[in-house]
Design brief:
Length: 138
């Protein structure tokens, strides 16, 4: 049996899924992006008059996605230090990986979960990064 976890302190999921599920001693987070909770604001995005993204700031999105993951972890009874596996999805590996890797090292200097980083064509909202995580329950 598993328990669904949702919180209004993190961005609302863009589909029919919870923020996380508790199963045994593990916590599985759904893909989490950098949108701000309670809004659809994406930190660092700039749009043209038609609403198309013309520029984004991967550093701003990276910091925001880490904040959102931390929020979901804490709301679910876990913590940043309990992360054991992180999958990073990027829409532009060539340009964004060096920045993400540098910021990731700042956040994870005391906890080194396993990590996989993959490039994908797009995400459901105009974001450049999303994380899928597994943690233990504190």
């Amino acid at each position: 049996m598993s328990e669904k976890i949702t919180t209004n302190k993190a961005p609302q999921p863009v589909g029919m899924y919870p923020h996380a599920r508790r199963a045994g001693g593990l916590l599985f987070l759904s893909g989490i992006g950098p949108r701000e909770a309670g809004t659809n604001i994406i930190p660092g995005n700039e749009y043209d008059e038609n609403g198309k993204v013309i520029r984004y700031d991967i550093a701003a999105q990276c910091h925001a996605v880490f904040r959102n993951v931390k929020t979901v972890l804490e709301e679910a009874g876990s913590s940043w230090r309990s992360l054991v596996d992180v999958t990073v999805f990027l829409t532009n590996m060539k340009d964004d990986f060096p920045v993400v890797n540098r910021i990731y090292a700042e956040y994870f200097k005391d906890n080194l979960p396993c990590r996989t980083t993959v490039e994908i064509k797009s995400l459901p909202t105009p974001i450049a990064i999303e994380l899928k995580c597994i943690a233990t329950i504190d």
